[in-house]
Amino acid sequence: MKLVINVFIFFFVLTLSAQNKATYTYSIKGTDTLKLDVYTPENIKKTDTLPVLLWMHGGGFAVGHRDYIDDENLVKYAAKEQNYIGISISYRLLRKGTTTGFGCDCTKDEKLETFKQAAIDYMDAAKYVVEHANELQIDTTKIIAGGSSAGAEGILNAVFMREYFVDNAEAYSNVKFAGAFSCAGAIVDASYMTPENAVPTVLYHGTKDQLVPYGNAPHHYCAPTKDGYIMLDGSKIIADKLEEFETSFYFNIVKEARHEISRIPYEELDIVFNFFERTVINDEVVQTKIIKTKK
């Protein structure tokens, strides 16, 4: 099995090797120069405007990078195989070098501030993309917000809770998300989800995720006595809300799996993008739950 997977990944990387790439600075905040890498299909015409996958990497708000190989290969795939503009962003890693990290010793207030600033960074990247849409050849009505683990938390909070986290929401009035793609993500409070901000969403999650809850549970399953005790709403709660709103979703549930489901599901990307083709491009309503058991 390992040999097959390695061959698949090698082939996957090989097919994505030729790309048009450009790097832009979207914001400078203190000592952080925040950039985004834009991958464009080689055959794009000057008159084309394409949908975009705007991707936020994971890493517990402490590690990771926009051009980490898995994240880079995803946005390359979006450009080469799906005729999207694929964009991977940097953002401030506010827990990097801290003594408490992002676990149970990191206070609730620090966690909320980290979630807030990550959502703001993501919104700033999206705002830059919208303001430079002509140059980047982007269809601003078809922006798919995507991320894994911490990045998934960042994008879900930006999509569904911008009014809570962003003080000057009017500055982002031109930023509208058409869909979301979350690998093992959660939001702070699903009650902020409404029929107005609900968008077609792809969710991957393991039912035994020990870091980001699958349902409504404490972040990192911290005890109530710990400083880092904060409840989050995971993929199950988000899917339940979308079902209630009659909004499209694709929910891939892996029973008994832990946080490894935060990895990008390369082997199913055709399914993911087909979902967005049907729901975002063609405006169909599709609600799908796939239930698997970890092998």
TrEMBL record:
Domain of life: Bacteria
Keywords: Hydrolase, Signal
One Pfam family cited in the UniProt record for this chain: COesterase
Residues spanning the signal sequence: 1-18
Carboxylesterase type B domain span: 29-153
Protein name, as recorded: Carboxylesterase type B domain-containing protein
